[in-house]
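INFO batch 0412 | record 1 of 1 | parsing
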Amino acid sequence: MPLDAQLLEVPEGLLAIVGGIAGVLTLIFEVALFTRQEHALFRRVTGGIELVAGLAMVAGGVAWQLTLGLPPRWDHWPAYLALAGVAFVVRGFVRVRTAGVGRAADDVHALAGRIEEEVWLFPPDRLTPDSYVPLDLRRPPYGRYPRPRDREAVAELTRWLRSTRKKPCVLYGESGSGKSVVLRRLARDLAARAQRRRRPSLMAVYVDLEAMPPRQEGDQRSDEELLRDHIRTQVGGHDPEMLRRLDRIFSGGYDSVVWAFLFDGFDDFVSAAQSATKEDTAQRWLQAVKRLKDGSETFRVVVASRDRLVARHLGWPVLALSPLTLARQVAFARELGQEGVGGLLKSMNADDELRPVVTLPLLLNLLLLHLRDEGGADGELRRDALVEAAVLQRLGHLDSARREAALRAGQDAAYPYPPAAVTVPGPDAPLNELVKANIARWRNDRLECVSKILEDYFVTGWIIRAGRVTDARRLFQDGRHLGALTAVLRRAGDDPVDPLRRDVISAATTLLQEVVETAGPIEDYRAHLSREPREPFPPRERTFAWPPVALGVFHVILDSGIALHDTELRPIREAAARMVVAAFASGAGLDQRYALALLPLLDVDVALWAVLRSGAADSAVRGGPYELLAIGAKVYERLTIPQRLVALAKAMRTGRLVERALTGRRRPGIAAVIRSVIRTLQLFGVALFLVFLLQVVELAITGDPVAALVEFVVVLLPVAWFLLSSVGLLGRPPIFSTFLLAFLAAVFAAGGLWRAAVALASLDPVTILGGLVGVAFVTWPFARVIDVIMFPEQRAWHDVVLPQIRVLREAHTRLVRQGLRQRYEQLQLLIRAGRPLKGTFPLFVFLIFAGVSLLDLPGVEGEAETEQKLPILGWVLGAACAVRYGSAALRVLAERRDMRRHLSRGAFDRDEVLAHLHRLTSHERTARFLKNLCACPPEQLSGVVSVLVDLDRTFDQVIRLVPAGTTRRVPPAVWEVGLDFDTPGFRAWLVSYDAAHPGRLSWMVSDPGRIFPVSACLRRLGVNRVAIPRD
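INFO prediction complete | emitting tokens
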């Protein structure tokens, strides 16, 4: 058969195969989808099959035609095959485009329209954030996910909901921070987006839990069923078609759409529920929310709450709404037509008491409306006065009697004990004046304020009108109106005979005495204040957890602004001290952060201990916690100079703390020190920038561009970055440039001393005078920083102009009159503070080269200057190497000397050896200590044989079960696998030791020479290393 004829027979078989496959697949999908009544999906699938088959036919026809050559002939099959493919492509494309969106998309579109209508966004004249301003979402210190920056809250939550994370999320924020606004806006934006898209993939359902009716007596439905029925009622209403759509969603039948349920009003719903305790009720309903979410893989859940601890035991991630920054505040004001309030907002940000007014969207809105209506910032701008002024302005159109009646009716309706039996009154009733003024609203035949802050205002008014706080205990336990108690206590002030203050303080004291025992505090807490910062606590049977009632009491006392150290508050301070010590003894990281937040309430010795303890190895709040800014003036004065440097280094390693310290101009203590240090570095930075700018220009003009570029990159760029950021133009001051500027100040101070030495050696009075003036100028920044750290109080003018005098006088007093032992301990503390800089010796050498190269020797120029700089560089590098490597040798000699001194006093004690091992700060010192210990005479080791045996067993266990080179904590179960110890309490000590020094045991066994002394010592003592069976 000719080749042409054979080729003509091929497409007939090809067409049969392609058509047969397409027909069979189409028939299968048609039957399957028709039985499920998925007509739209049927058209999309079959159309897609025809589209793919048509493309294959077109490609086959074109390829075949190319084999036959061009131009094509109409009596050949390739043209017909290609034309048939085109027909299939057109038909498949038309079927796909004309297919409906399917039942899932139909349901989403219908529900989106209903939700967009039902979700209530605040009208422009309501006392709530009327214009949405993007809020930052940041990770709390105990969060699990990366911290997003400068993103809108709605956009960030949308990204979070689209991610693959399965856990529910808690959206945390204070009253007035915009939680409801964010959730409502998110639901409305997603509903609008779903209506615009043909096949939406994400949909949100806003659920107002506060509107959920309480469980009726005899109702046998589970909590999950109650939540589901409430969602059906709130969204579907009485529309049977809408209810059927919701039932299909809850049945989990739609895998192509992610459904996000946004629960708002959780705190008020829990407080109103009838249960034993608020915490138990919260946990029960959170479990119900979790079960609802577990009903489908496509369900997501966000719960808004004012309580950070609400989901702590469930391990849910917590996203916190950050306070509004100054830039966002100005943008907020601009949207309300207030253009010239930037200066006022900046000054209010610098005031600790006024800052909440401008960082919370609701209060900022009240402030801006007040400024708009009053025409200026005259009058009181405190939180309580601002809310009162806003409410009275809204009711200003009423006469005094009518306004007073409306306020009294609102107070009676808002006070919760007993709940007022309020029914919807007539249109002329006083309560309706509040509704007309958009201060309150009717919901389910119940009057409620549009904001929690306004509700606290009316509760406060009821208490002040009554003259007593008879329900203070219930208000503390309830937790819904802590703001009202704070306002009452703030208004009562420090008058000890004021009945309002007496009632609140008495109820707080009684409650703390009752709940302090349930949290697992330490009875004799003062016995632990003498512990070293790194000394471990003995194992405790109970772990500590802050009772929510206690936290509420402490926050009310702190936020009220009353004198915290009155005799009347002594029981409250004692309870706080016991809980703070317990938090560091057996609490988690979040518990320890709450403990540091109570520093202003504690006695000085307890606050000092908490600050030092926060830097211990087993503390979970290392790395610059925000609460360090709470170190007040009294606590700071009790810190030694090395302790102050430790706290200052920890604080300045976190840029947000520096930013917060700069904005809080009235903060005393360490915040004031940070401000003074930054201001001093700013002055030094300006002078340094100008000097090096002129030098760079001169080098560039004289033809040395390389040196000009080096100075520009090494000095000018970091200094410029620091200067611009420290005044708020580039965010917070960068940590690197801040410490670099401090280092350059020290380098210039050293250069100034060198110049002074050269001037004194010349014996020329004029040269000597000029050298002294020069050294006073170049050492001023460094001396000023040291003076600020040593003396944070107000200074005389001569101490500011010549801080070197007071620094030298104090240095002589501290370094000459104190013993060597105390100076050694202070040096060790400073070394621990600088541990984050470990391993930067090459960088230090580079900075030495840069510093010496930039040094300008007087009276020497050209090559002669280079020749004289080389010996200086050699001496400086030699001194640095001597300090670097000589300090290690001196440390080894000191350890051996301490060992011999201890041996002279008698045998070792096992508890003392274990405590000393726990205190050692490095791997190398641990290995040296064990080596020196095992080299002691046998009679000196009689008391520690069991410790050596248990250490040897521990090393064997690490070799067998722990991965080599790990730097993580060993699971405690490793010490339970076939291992017995002779020393009492050794297993508990081992767990705490490994937690404080993770990776050290693995490092020890990585080199046999480090653990050989222990086994060799046991053989020398003739001790059997076989484990003793357990009883």
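INFO post-check: The chain has a mean pLDDT of 70.
INFO record closed
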